[in-house]
Amino acid sequence: MGGTQIQAHEAVSRCIAVLDVGTTAVKACLFSPSLELLACSVQEYALRTQGERVEADAAQYKAAARAGLADALSQAPGCIPAAVSITTQGETLTLADRSGEPLRPFLVWLDSRAENEAQALRSVLDNETFYKTTGLPEVTGALPLAKLLWLRKHEPDTFVRAHKLLLLEDYLLHWLTGRFVSEKSLQTSTGWFDLHSDGLWHSGLAAAGASAELLPELLECGAPAGSLLPGPAAELGLPPNIPVVAGAMDQTAAALAAGCTRPGTVTETTGTALVMAACTDAPMFRSGHHVTVYRHALPGKYLYLPIGNTAGMALRWFRDEFCRDLPAGAAGYAALDALVQSVPCGCDGLAFLPFLSGSVDPDACPEARAAFFGARLSTTRAHFARSVMESVAFLLRDFFGMLNALGCPADTVYSLGGGARSAVWQQIKADACGRTFRVPVCSEATAMGAALLAGWGSGLIAPGVFPCRGESAVYLPDNARAPAYDTAYSLYKKLYAAVKPLYNAF
After folding, report:
1. Could you write out the DSSP letters of every residue in 263-298?
2. At 418, phi and psi to the nearest 5?
3. pLDDT tens digit sequence for 88-120
4. Which of 84, 80, 14 is nearest to 227 (CA)?
């Protein structure tokens, strides 16, 4: 926990403050009106877990925001915030009273307690209709729509006392402005947002026993949400009455910052999970396997979101369990990079399936498990490490195929997340997918997307103008390696097909 010192700059009279509220940490960032990152502070917090339940207290989010902004402001003397915005994880929600105070802890997006309620909703909501309305593949126990029904059934006293059901960004916006408002990219993660009407899906809400009155007013991403109240301004060390601007959900904000604003532009985020975002003006809702579709931060645009549950998490799992002699943090990953470079493409026939927590795309298989195949006496730890990296590249290759089948080109690819910091992994992706991968200069793309929206909404940046964004690295595919990767990819696909029937035995 603590600050990340940004290289010193000349005094800046005005800047944009952003709270990027993730699953286990808040990043408090300051940006200039040209979207130069001036300061960033990371403040971690713990979640409460018990079985399938994952909760967090509102006080944790507030405390991390206060500490983070205090640290960030100390890193940028002379920087005076003139606007503030928020970006958060999707799906995390609570019930609040008329003053905006939570009546219970937040149900974090990882919480899957509502599986019985999800099953009940699936019995009354046709799955194809649900998908084509909301863009979400199916009703699951992690979905806010199912959690809403769980709260109504299991905590009726709290439910009847509730004035509003708030997602995490909604709660923080109310804290800052006193207004019950939300934004549309965040609401697309709920199961009660209609992509076609660009508003609430009343039939979905009714199935969960709720009405639109329970939800906050919907704003466009980048719309002014209100003025910063004196109380929270004093808590956060910000000037009172500056504009608070509605942000966007984390994946959407990152895609916006990276320039994923037109068909043909794609982002891939190799973080805990692997998420690809591809912009489209007219999404296709194909029968069979359903690709997640989100509402973009820009009106009239949408994002296809193929998802792999474990990517960076798979490499961390390998490091933690099988490389305990390596140092922690960045030094440990650098050591893994060095190991991986000693092994040829295709890992001498070793393959890995990266499904440590089921498969979402390209094949919806919650029962999927990870597997190594092809080890011999000559196989080393370096082979295993490289096979993990290559498996994520092959998952990306599958995602490109999915987008192609949807008529969505991928002409320009931007890499985000922790995986983008590994030159070795980036080159593996480029070679295995036969595409050029570009890494933006700013490593905090999610916060930058929220800063851009704050700039537009406050007038610090002209609406629709994208300040110049550079690239820190570009990775071109080496065509000489294509045959080796084609062979390795074929083995990867055959391995999955061969072991999939065994998953039902678990």
Report:
1. TEEEEEEESSSEEEEEEESS----SSSPPPEEE-SS
2. -60, -35
3. 988 999 999 999 999 999 999 888 899 999 999
4. 84
Q: Which CATH superfamily is domain 2-247 in?
A: ATPase, nucleotide binding domain (3.30.420.40)
pLDDT digits (tens, 9 = 90+) for 285-340: 877 778 899 999 999 999 999 988 888 889 988 998 999 999 888 888 999 999 99
Please state, in angstroms and rounded to a whole number, the distance separating the CA atoms of residues 449 and 246: 11
Tell me the C-alpha to C-alpha distance, in Å, between residue 12 and each of 38, 76, 303, 371, 462. 9, 8, 35, 52, 19
Number of residues that make up the chain: 506
Pull the structure tokens for residue 159: 């439910």
Query: Whole-angstrom Cα distance, residue 443 to residue 305?
Result: 21
Same topology, domains 2-247 and 256-440+476-506? Answer is yes
Q: Do 279 and 301 touch, CB atoms closer than 8 A? A: yes
The β-bridge relationship of strands 217-219 and 181-183 is parallel
Q: What is the DSSP letter of 358?
A: B
Question: Is residue 334 within a helix (H) or strand (E), and if so which, with residue range?
Answer: helix 329-341
What CATH code would you report for 256-440+476-506? 3.30.420.40
**Domain-wise residue ranges, the chain:** 2-247, 256-440+476-506
185, 297 Cβ separation under 8 angstroms: yes
Q: Helix, strand, coil proportions of the chain in percent (round to 5)?
A: 40, 25, 40
Banded pLDDT at 260 (limits 50, 70, 90) = confident
Q: Are 307 and 318 in contact (CB under 8 A)?
A: no
Helix (H, G, I), strand (E, B) or coil at 32: coil
Q: CA distances (Å), 16 to each of 40, 68, 257, 439, 454, in order? A: 12, 14, 15, 23, 7
Residue of 111, 107, 114 lying closest to 92 (CA atoms): 107
HSE-CB at 468 with a 13 A cutoff on CA atoms is 1
